[in-house]
UniProtKB/TrEMBL annotation, chain A:
<dbReference type="GO" id="GO:0046872">
    <property type="term" value="F:metal ion binding"/>
</dbReference>
<dbReference type="Pfam" id="PF13534">
    <property type="entry name" value="Fer4_17"/>
</dbReference>
<dbReference type="GO" id="GO:0051539">
    <property type="term" value="F:4 iron, 4 sulfur cluster binding"/>
</dbReference>
<dbReference type="GO" id="GO:0005886">
    <property type="term" value="C:plasma membrane"/>
</dbReference>
<protein>
    <submittedName>
        <fullName>Heterodisulfide reductase subunit C</fullName>
    </submittedName>
</protein>
<keyword id="KW-0560">Oxidoreductase</keyword>
<dbReference type="InterPro" id="IPR051460">
    <property type="entry name" value="HdrC_iron-sulfur_subunit"/>
</dbReference>
<keyword id="KW-0479">Metal-binding</keyword>
<dbReference type="InterPro" id="IPR017900">
    <property type="entry name" value="4Fe4S_Fe_S_CS"/>
</dbReference>
Automatic annotation (TrEMBL), chain B:
<feature type="domain" description="Cysteine-rich">
    <location>
        <begin position="144"/>
        <end position="233"/>
    </location>
</feature>
<dbReference type="Pfam" id="PF02754">
    <property type="entry name" value="CCG"/>
</dbReference>
<protein>
    <submittedName>
        <fullName>Heterodisulfide reductase subunit B</fullName>
    </submittedName>
</protein>
<dbReference type="GO" id="GO:0016491">
    <property type="term" value="F:oxidoreductase activity"/>
</dbReference>
<feature type="domain" description="Cysteine-rich">
    <location>
        <begin position="4"/>
        <end position="84"/>
    </location>
</feature>
<dbReference type="InterPro" id="IPR004017">
    <property type="entry name" value="Cys_rich_dom"/>
</dbReference>
<dbReference type="InterPro" id="IPR051278">
    <property type="entry name" value="HdrB/HdrD_reductase"/>
</dbReference>
<keyword id="KW-0560">Oxidoreductase</keyword>
Length: 181, 284
């Protein structure tokens, strides 16, 4: 795609390269939007996100809720007539938003951090402490208390985490992948 | 027959009944599951939303472990399955990525492990006919809708399993068990997945839409193959009574095979399925 503005071009190219998707092929058929079950909770349709990337509108895209509300159900990509896996584009946009400190949905990002910290600490996610830490850090302490208690009562939230043996190797995977990106 | 087994984090806690029923049913059907030693979390949505490379590296660690066993890999959780299958797809089709991952995870990818969802493993290795032959107590009168969710069938070029718009694998199993599977249009919709904790209003909206559609179709219960779908379907509804419980497909196979552990699995549900099963004389 050609751009007069270098910043816009750079943004388009960065998203295209990170997502490895032919974003320029989108011709706005809106098949993605008509099958997207997240749109009623989001601020832009998937085709609008693609159009904004095509136009290099970095701030509008990175500050949108849609890229975070997208649950990566992959319906849009499976139906796209141009073979654009839109969920991969949404992931690339989330990564760029994190890097540039422009995260619109702070709690969703917080959840991902808490989840990965648990995986990094034990090798496996300890759902009980992971949920408790998320609740504490997000300040949303009271919701789901009844469900949590019922799960605990049924033995579905074990108190102690399982710790894997190959911790060093796991640490290396986290460190190296963070360094690469 | 022997397969490696990667249960994933949820099956050790919020989805224990899936783990228990999967192991019991596979053993009863002659499919030995050998749990991967020292498996790690697949990173799930949190890894692919924040660090693409990590989202391929973590499941590749499990691929490396499976490779050492020399067995094909069965993964019951749809989310874990999808991440491992995507990692395997990347390793097969993207040389640059494969080299990076081999360096990060410190192994040599040989591409000899076939990655299956547990559903696919049962369908292809055991077969619907063999499952039907093992039925001792047909699930007569039970009307269900099958909910495949997203990650079992999408993206189709990666999963290469069933029809991504109208899958039938679960329906075929349900029919083989003597139950009725009702057609509906929501088989592969999304349950909201991990947004349950952060944006419960979104998930509640998605789940209630599914439950209303299931009810309208005339279903008494839903059948799933994913711990995220199952827990969202039972947890994120307006009122939690005993209507429309969500079963793991392995629980229904176990019930139809009259396996002794069934009662233990059903006790773990947030929506008690016993009143429904008792009303059909399928449980005491």
């Amino acid at each position: 795609m050609s751009f007069l503005n270098g910043d816009k071009r750079n943004f388009f190219n960065a998203v295209r390269e990170m997502s490895r998707q032919p974003i320029e092929l989108c011709y706005q058929c809106q098949k993605c939007a008509s099958g997207c079950i997240a749109t009623e909770y989001a601020d832009y349709y998937p085709n609008e996100i693609l159009r904004m990337v095509q136009f290099g509108q970095k701030d509008r895209v990175l500050n949108s809720s849609s890229i975070w509300i997208c649950s990566s159900c992959e319906t849009c990509g499976a139906r796209c007539p141009n073979g654009i896996n839109i969920a991969e584009v949404m992931d690339a946009l989330k990564e760029i938003a994190i890097r540039e400190n422009k995260v619109k949905e702070k709690n969703i990002h917080l959840f991902h951090s808490v989840f990965l910290n648990s995986a990094r600490a034990h090798g496996r996610v300890h759902e009980g402490t992971m949920m408790a830490i998320y609740k504490f850090k997000s300040g949303d302490l009271m919701s789901d208390m009844d469900i949590g208690w019922e799960m605990f009562r049924k033995g579905k939230l074990p108190i102690l985490p399982h710790r894997i043996k190959a911790k060093g190797q796991l640490r290396k995977i986290f460190d190296k992948t963070t360094a690469h990106s | 027959m022997k397969l490696s087994y990667f249960p994933g984090c949820s099956l050790g806690s919020t989805a224990k009944e899936y783990d228990y029923s999967a192991r019991s049913v596979c053993q009863a059907l002659g499919m030995e599951l050998v749990e991967l030693k020292d498996w790690v979390c697949c990173g799930a949505t949190s890894a692919h939303s924040t660090n693409h490379l990590l989202s391929i590296a973590l499941p590749s660690r499990n691929l490396a472990l499976a490779q050492e066993t020399g067995l094909d890999l069965a993964v019951p959780c749809s989310a874990c399955y999808n991440r491992v299958k995507k990692a395997d797809y990347n390793m097969r089709h993207n040389d640059e990525m494969r080299q990076k991952i081999e360096e990060i995870v410190e192994f040599k990818y040989r591409g000899q492990v076939n990655v299956y969802s547990l559903l696919e493993a049962l369908i292809t290795k055991i077969g619907v006919e063999a499952i039907a032959k093992n039925v001792k107590k047909p699930l007569k009168g039970l009307k269900v809708v099958c909910f495949y969710g997203c990650l079992l069938v999408r993206p189709p070029e990666v999963t290469c399993f069933d029809n991504s718009e109208n899958p039938v694998a679960l329906d075929n199993i349900v029919k083989a068990l003597g139950a009725e599977s009702i057609p509906w249009s929501y088989k592969t919709d999304c349950c909201g997945a991990n947004l349950g904790l952060t944006s419960s209003n979104v998930v509640q909206g998605m789940v209630n839409r599914l439950l209303e559609a299931a009810k309208e179709a005339g279903a008494m219960a839903l059948v799933t193959a994913c711990p995220l779908c199952q827990s969202n379907l039972e947890m994120r509804r307006k009122e939690r009574g005993t209507d429309l419980p969500a079963f793991y497909f392995t629980e229904l196979i176990g019930l139809a095979m009259d396996l002794p552990d069934c009662r233990k699995w059903f006790n773990l549900h947030l929506i008690n399925p016993k009143p429904l099963l008792q009303s059909l004389s399928l449980a005491d």
